[in-house]
Design a protein that fits this description.
Blueprint (H helix, E strand, L loop, with lengths): L14 H13 L8 E7 L15 E2 L5 E7 L2 E10 L8 E5 L7 E3 L6 E2 L2 E2 L3 E6 L10 E6 L3 E3 L2 E6 L15 E9 L14 E9 L4 E8 L2 E10 L7 E7 L7 E4 H4 L14 E3 L5 E3 L3 E3 L2 E8 L6 E10 L9 E4 L3 E5 L6 E7 L1 E12 L12 E5 L7 E2 L3 H4 L11 E3 L2 E5 L7 E6 L5 E3 L2 E6 L10 E11 L4 E8 L3 H6 L3 E13 L9 E17 L7 E8 L5 E7 L2 E2 L5 E3 L8 E8 L9 E9 L5 E3 L1 E7 L2
Antiparallel strand pairs: 1-13, 2-3, 3-12, 4-10, 4-11, 4-13, 5-6, 5-12, 7-8, 9-10, 14-23, 15-22, 16-20, 16-21, 16-23, 17-18, 17-22, 19-20, 24-35, 25-35, 26-34, 27-32, 27-33, 27-35, 28-29, 28-34, 30-31, 31-32, 36-46, 37-38, 38-44, 38-45, 39-43, 39-46, 40-41, 40-42, 40-44
Length: 619
C-alpha cells in the first residue's frame, strides 16, 4: 500500500467515489508523510523571462510530444493546459506502468465530460474576449483527478505545444504536479469519537479581542463556522495557540485565513471559504495535545465587530505521527522590490503545505500583472521543485483574474473584474500535499518577471513540527581532488571533465563556476550516513544542457530496484540543476556508510555530476 494510496483506476470510480476519497484525505491531513515528495513539470521560460510556453520534453518514437516522463511509483494530481479554442486541437494520452497503449485519450473539450475527468474535479475554464476583459478567448483545461502509477507515467500531446501567437495557431502553456513514493506505509485512519460544539456570540469593541475557544486537554478542532457582521471584517485577525506555544502558530487576517483576502465576492473550496449567506467555514482538522485557544482580534481603531462562532471539538490524533496546523508568518501588504520574489511564506522543520492564498494589488493605480511565477523551494534546494507559469496558472486559470468570482473544490480567486486585475487567489492541496523535511520558501514574482511595481500579501497554511526530519551527513565535490580522494571517487567511461559556469533557474542565484564530469559508464564513491536513518536522499548538482539523463543506482552492490535516477527535462540557458534521488530505507538501515555506484543508462550524451549532498532521514 503506497503512502498516499490513490485511486488505482479512476475510470472505474464515480464522481462521488473520487470526492469521498478527497473527503477521507481531508480528515487525514494532520498525518505527516515520510517517503513522499512533490514535483512539477511544465512550461517555464528556461531563460528566466516571461516566455512561459514551449511545453514538451522530447518527441517519442510514435511522433507524440512527451509532456511528462517519470520513473517509479507515484501519483499525478494536477494537469493544466492552456489553449486557444481556434488553435489546432491536441490529443492528450496518459500512459502508466510501461503500457504501450494509453490508458486515457483526451481532447480539451472532453475534460469535465468524459470519465475519469469529470466535474467538479476536472473541467474547462473558458475565458472570453468581451471588453473590458478582452484577454481571450482562451480554454484552460484542468484536472485534479488522482491517477496513481506503480512503475512510471508518461503524458503526451499529439501536437507540439509551443509559441503564443494565436493567429499562427500556437500555444504551449501548461504543467503537471505529481507525487513520487520512495517508501511504503499504511494509510492512517482518522481518530474516531464524539464531538462537542462550542458556540458563542459577541460584540468585540475596537482595538479589543475575544476568545472563542479555550480548551484544556487533548483533542482536535474539526470544523469552524464564523459569521461576521458587515463592516470591519477586514480589520479582524485570527490568533490560534496550540499547547501553550508562546509564539502563535496562526496569526493572520480573517480574509487570508479563509482563502480570500480581496474580499469583493464569496469563494469557497473543499477545505475553507465562504458560503452563500456569507458564513465563513474552515474544515481543516487541527489537532492539539494539551490545550487550544482561538481568539478573534478586532484591530479597527474605531468600529466594534459583532461575531457568531461555532467550533466543533473532536477526539485527539496520535501525537507521534501528526503535525500542528500552522500558518507561515503572514506576508503583510508591501510594495515589491524589483528583481526578487516576494516571500509569501517560509518555515523551518518538517511537514506539508495544504493551502496558499496570494494577493496582488496595485501601486498608485498602476496595472497589476498576474504573470508572476510561483516558485516553491523545498528543503534548501536552489532549484525550485514547484513552479507555475504565472500566478493564475498556479490556481488553474488563465489570462488573469478578470472574471470574478471563480472557485472549484481545490482552487479559485476573487478580484475587481476590471483590467487592473487586482486579485486574491487560493490553491488548496488535499490529496496532493507538498511535503518538506527541513523547511520551505514560497515565493511569487512581481510583474512579468520581477520587473513591475506591485503590492503583495498572503499566507501559506501547513501542518508541521519545528524539528527537521532530515540532516546533511556528507558532501562530495567532484571537482575537488581532496574530496574525491576522501570519498574514494572513481569514474569509468569518462566523456569529459570540464569547468562549467552557469546559473540555476531561480531568481536569486548568480553565476556559479564548478568542475565536474560527464560519463557514459559508471561512477563510484563512498559516503557517510546516520546509522539511525530511515532512508537517504542524494542531491546532485548536474548540468541540464541535455535532458533524459538516467542512471541505475547501486547501494553496496545492490541495485535500487524500485526506480532509476531519471530526469527527462533539460535547460540549455540556465544549466545548473539540483535534482534528487531517494534511497529507500531497506538499502541503508543501520549503516553509517554506503558505497554508491551510478551507471549511465539511456539516450543522453552522458550522466553529469559536479557536486553531491547526502542527507539522512531521521523520521
Amino acid at each position: 500500500m503506497n503512502v498516499a494510496e490513490s485511486i488505482t483506476d479512476p475510470a472505474a470510480q464515480t464522481v462521488p467515489d473520487v470526492l469521498a476519497w478527497h473527503e477521507a484525505e481531508l480528515a487525514r491531513l494532520p498525518f505527516l508523510r515520510p517517503g513522499l515528495t512533490a514535483h512539477y513539470e511544465g512550461s517555464i521560460d528556461k531563460a528566466g523571462g516571461n516566455a512561459d510556453w514551449d511545453w514538451w520534453l522530447y518527441q517519442d518514437g510514435r511522433g507524440e510530444w512527451v509532456l511528462l516522463d517519470v520513473d517509479g511509483p507515484g501519483c499525478v494530481h494536477h494537469f493544466v493546459q492552456h489553449r486557444y479554442p481556434t488553435c489546432p486541437e491536441p490529443v492528450f494520452r496518459f500512459y502508466f506502468n510501461g503500457e504501450t497503449e494509453p490508458r486515457y485519450t483526451m481532447r480539451p473539450a472532453d475534460f469535465g465530460r468524459k470519465a475519469p475527468f469529470l466535474k467538479p474535479l476536472a473541467d474547462v475554464f473558458e475565458g472570453d474576449d468581451v471588453p473590458p476583459r478582452g484577454r481571450g478567448p482562451i480554454w484552460v483545461v484542468r484536472s485534479m483527478v488522482p491517477m496513481e502509477f506503480q512503475k512510471g507515467c508518461r503524458i503526451t500531446s499529439s501536437i507540439k505545444l509551443e509559441g503564443c501567437d494565436r493567429a499562427k495557431g500556437e500555444g504551449g502553456w501548461g504543467h503537471v504536479i505529481y507525487h513520487r513514493y520512495s517508501e511504503t506505509a499504511l494509510r492512517p485512519e482518522e481518530p474516531r469519537g464524539g464531538t462537542e460544539l462550542r458556540s458563542c456570540a459577541a460584540t468585540i469593541p475596537a482595538a479589543c479581542e475575544h476568545e472563542v475557544l479555550a480548551h484544556q486537554g487533548a483533542g482536535s478542532v474539526r470544523s469552524w463556522r464564523l459569521r461576521v457582521a458587515a463592516g470591519v471584517h477586514r480589520d479582524l485577525w485570527i490568533r490560534i495557540r496550540w499547547d501553550g506555544e508562546e509564539t502563535p502558530p496562526v496569526w493572520c487576517p480573517l480574509g487570508a485565513f479563509f482563502g480570500n483576502e480581496f474580499g469583493a465576492h464569496r469563494v469557497g473550496f473543499l477545505t475553507h471559504g465562504q458560503e452563500e449567506d456569507g458564513t465563513y467555514y474552515c474544515r481543516f482538522p487541527m489537532p492539539f495535545w494539551k490545550s487550544a485557544q482561538v481568539t478573534l482580534c478586532n484591530r479597527s481603531e474605531s468600529e466594534a465587530c459583532s461575531v457568531e462562532s461555532e467550533i466543533e471539538v473532536g477526539p485527539a490524533y496520535p501525537e507521534a505521527t501528526c503535525g500542528y496546523f500552522r500558518a507561515a508568518e503572514y506576508c503583510p501588504s508591501q510594495d515589491v522590490t524589483s528583481g526578487r520574489d516576494s516571500v509569501i511564506g517560509a518555515a523551518q522543520g518538517r511537514g506539508h503545505i495544504v493551502a496558499a492564498t496570494l494577493t496582488g494589488r496595485s501601486v498608485d493605480g498602476r496595472y497589476v500583472s498576474c504573470e508572476g511565477d510561483v516558485r516553491l523551494h523545498l528543503d534548501g534546494s536552489t532549484t525550485p521543485q514547484i513552479e507555475s507559469d504565472g500566478s493564475e496558472s498556479h490556481a488553474g486559470y488563465g489570462w488573469g483574474f478578470v472574471y470574478p468570482p471563480q472557485s472549484n473544490p481545490f482552487s479559485g480567486y476573487d478580484g475587481s473584474g476590471d483590467p487592473l486585475c487586482e486579485f486574491s487567489e487560493t490553491r488548496v492541496h488535499v490529496g496532493d500535499v507538498i511535503p518538506f523535511r527541513m523547511g520551505f520558501r514560497f515565493g511569487l514574482e512581481a510583474g512579468d518577471c520581477n520587473d513591475a511595481p506591485m503590492r503583495h500579501s498572503g499566507v501559506v497554511l501547513y501542518y508541521g513540527r519545528a524539528e527537521p526530519a532530515t540532516m546533511l551527513t556528507d558532501t562530495v565535490d567532484i571537482g575537488d581532488f581532496e574530496s574525491e580522494k576522501i570519498h574514494a571517487y572513481r569514474v569509468e567511461g569518462l566523456v569529459s571533465r570540464e569547468e562549467v559556469t552557469a546559473r540555476y533557474e531561480d531568481e536569486l542565484s548568480l553565476e556559479l563556476t564548478n568542475t565536474g564530469v560527464a560519463h557514459r559508464g559508471a561512477s563510484e564513491f563512498a559516503v557517510s550516513i546516520s546509522p539511525e536513518n530511515t532512508g537517504v536522499r542524494l542531491r546532485r548538482r548536474s548540468d541540464q544542457l541535455y535532458g533524459r539523463q538516467r542512471a541505475r543506482v547501486f547501494v553496496d552492490g545492490v541495485r535500487v530496484e524500485e526506480y532509476d535516477w531519471y530526469v527527462a527535462d533539460r535547460n540549455p540557458h540556465r544549466r545548473w540543476l539540483e535534482d534528487e534521488f531517494e534511497i529507500p530505507s531497506r538499502y541503508t538501515r543501520g549503516k553509517d556508510q554506503i558505497h554508491l555506484r551510478l551507471e549511465h543508462m539511456g539516450s543522453a550524451p552522458g550522466w553529469t555530476e559536479f557536486f553531491y549532498w547526502v542527507f539522512s532521514h531521521t523520521v
